[in-house]
Amino acid sequence: MARRFPDSVEDADATRLSGRIRETEAQIAQLLQARQQIAPPSAERNTDHRRADLLRGRMHHLLEIIERNAAQCRQLQREAQDALRELQRGGQFLQGVRGYRENQPKFLDSRNSSSGD
């Protein structure tokens, strides 16, 4: 059966990916700073800055989505585990009253009640 919720390995992968994205972002910033110091202002540099800003914005947006989805998955997993525990308690209760239920009539006939008819 396929797992619906991320496990600790998947959470670790998401954290590692988030760290790599931040490292790459820092490297891009360093490269842009080094290029600014070496190259004179040009239209090409402005284009590179716009592209870098666009990529940076997309990375931040993806990180937000990843973090939000991970939080939602953890919440759904907790809710599912709580529902499973409640279902198990109900099953234990039904097992506990099984003998009592088997010795009871299947239905009660109101005409044969002991109300003194």
Any key phrases for this structure?
0% strand, mainly alpha, 117 residues
Domain tally: 1
The sequence of SSEs as H and E is: HHH
The number of E-state strands comes to 0
Tally of helical runs: 3
Structure description:
With 117 residues, the chain is mainly alpha-helical. It has one domain. It is 77% helix and 0% strand. It contains 3 helices and no strands. Helix 1 runs antiparallel to helix 2. The longest helix has 54 residues, at 43-96.
Summarize the structure.
With 117 residues, this protein is mainly α.
Indicate the topology:
Layout lengths: L7 H31 L4 H54 L1 H5 L15
Helix pairs in contact: 1-2
